[in-house]
Amino acid sequence: MAKLGLVVDLDTCVGCHGCATACKQWNTSGTIGPLSDKDPYGRDPSGTWLNRVRTYEVGDTPNSKTVHMPMSCMHCEDAACVTVCPTGASYKRKEDGIVLVDQDKCMGCNLCSWACPYGARELDPQAGTMKKCTLCVDRIYDEKLPQAERQPACVLTCPTSSRVFGDFDDPNSDVSRLTRERGGQQLMPELGYNPVNTYLPPRNKKVVESYQIKPSLGATLKQWVNKVITR
Amino acid sequence: MHPAFSVLIFTVTSGAGYGLFALMVLAQLAGLNALQDSTLLLSGAVLALLMITIGLLSSTLHLANPKNAWRSFARFRTSWLSREAVFAVLFYPVALLYLFGIYAQGSELSSLYSACGVVAALLAMVTLFCTSMIYASLKTIRQWCTALTPLNYLSMGLMSGALCLATLQALLQDGLSPVLRSAGLGLIALGAVVKLIYLFWIGKPAGATIKTATGFTQASVRLLDAGHSAGTFLTNEFGYTVAANKLLRLRFAMVALAFVVPFLLLMQGHAAATVLAALLALAGLLVERWLFFAEARHVVRLYHGDQRT
Ligand code: SF4
Ligand code: SF4
Ligand code: SF4
Asked: What letter would DSSP give residue B260?
């Protein structure tokens, strides 16, 4: 029994979309691939992605921070996407908690994507089936890969190591330790899905004042004269 | 939520069909005079089955991979969509037996066929309830996740069913029976009340916000970049947005078409007015169902920049 998932560090993520691209690259030829694209080289390209990065501004200037937030499936403990699926195509594995879609059973009804709060599921219009993050189940157990590479593609590729993969059931794993020490949180916990992935909030840093523009000597003189005259 | 036309057709026509079937069986077994007429019963049951079948066929149109539709019976224990499919299929043999009963015995049904009628009527209501629970069980859409949703679907189904029944009765026997007329008026009034309560209820701000969605509950949060250069599955499915003034106009159109005008027409009681009332109400319910989708705002919109749902 394990509870596999990801930790995403919002302090260090630079929003390069590397994880999203590596994910697309790996999974389009993986177990649930291909991840089809419509009009990929045309004017209005759109496609199926299992991981997307969005950027927010948090707080107000000068105390604001740009936060990049990559989002893929959270492999929720109370995954309503599985509960609502009529065909049994969506399931959550007992042994490691990974939520998967059996491509041979899915009828493309979209209901699971409606049930997911995190936008983790996308219908592949060409295949007619639902696609989602597999937690790279076809990498992490692959004994042909060197031990260090038995990690999700997005984790391996991240240039700032902002994504960490591991077992949340093991209190000594990196993911458990990071979540504990850095106050990792779930997104939208009030919906009760109990997502496994956690997000590490940006560290508190002191505000760096932007430099003050000093008025020129003439302008200072003018101001001073104005003050004197109105008096 | 993006309103899929096939789903609108499905919920409105099959809702009316199930409502018609259930009301007809009930009225006949209750001994309502106007309904002790095998021609009326036969045409009512056939019309109901036809509407239900058209609805169910239309519902398969929105599946991206319909060849696996048969698998939808698999998760009866957890999925309302699966339950809907199972009950919809169970309804057929029982309803057809009842139909055969009327064909063979007229309105003086033996207890076996009467029992079939009752069971089919129950299955009709249960199926309609399951349909509504598909929406009501989604915690991601606060406008749907309420007991008002099943109430809405059941009352609209019964209302449109009553109007269909009144139409058939008024056409087949000359003149609308006063009992069916008052039943129709009552159900229209009920439907209108349920809908108005619903509209009032969804107007109140509630639920998740962009702050809880991103985890920054102490500060203001704004979307800077959605991260994509073209539409995605998520923006197509959940990003559907209609201007507030258009929504308001459609709300008025819905209330007029679905409730007010049919009510006034039914008060007239002429056969032609009854037919018109039923047709207008069905059109009004299409608008109602369209609004049910267009006004529903999924929480994933928060990640795309909405401050609240
Ligand atoms: S993030 Fe969405 S798709 Fe993934 S387990 Fe949770 S509800 Fe299901
Ligand atoms: S789209 Fe596929 S996986 Fe999702 S609920 Fe429907 S059948 Fe299940
Ligand atoms: S774990 Fe694998 S499938 Fe999931 S987001 Fe990362 S690369 Fe994509």
From this structure: I
Provide the percentage of residues in chain B whose pLDDT is more than 70: 100
The pLDDT tens digits of the residues spanning B106-152 come to: 888 889 999 999 999 999 999 999 999 999 999 999 999 999 999 99
Domain boundaries, chain B: 5-303
Is the link from the previous residue into A34 a cis peptide, with omega within 30 of 0?
yes
Minimum-distance CB partner of A114 among B75, B78, B140: B140
pLDDT digits (tens, 9 = 90+) for A14-49: 999 999 999 999 999 999 989 999 998 988 889 999
For chain A, what are the domain ranges?
A: 4-200
H helices of chain A, in order, are 18-27, 80-84, 111-115, 137-140, 153-157, 174-182, 217-230
Alpha-carbon gap, residue B51 to B165, rounded angstroms:
13
Does A14 contact chain B (CB < 8 Å)? Answer: no
ipTM, interface predicted TM-score of the complex: 0.94
Q: Which of B77, B228, B238 to mutate to test the interface with A (most CBs of A within 10 A)?
A: B228
Taking residues A46-65, what's their average pLDDT?
A: 93
Q: Which residues contact A43 (CB under 8 A, 6 or more apart)?
A: none
Chain B neighbours among A 81-110 (CB < 8 Å)?
82-89, 105-110
Residue nearest to atom 1 of ligand 3 (CA): A135
Query: Which ligand sits nearest to residue A97's alpha carbon?
Result: 1
Q: Is the CB of A72 under 6 A from ligand 3?
A: yes
Whole-number mean pLDDT of chain B? Answer: 95
Question: Which atom of ligand 3 lies closest to the CA of A165?
Answer: 1
Whether ligand 2 lies within 6 angstroms of the CB of A32 is answered as no
List the structure tokens of A135.
């937690």
Atom of ligand 2 nearest to the CA of B79: 5
The CATH code belonging to domain A4-200 is 3.30.70.20
- The pTM assigned to this predicted structure is 0.92
Q: Which CATH architecture has domain B5-303?
A: Up-down Bundle (1.20)
Instruction: Report the amino acid identity of residue A135.
Output: L
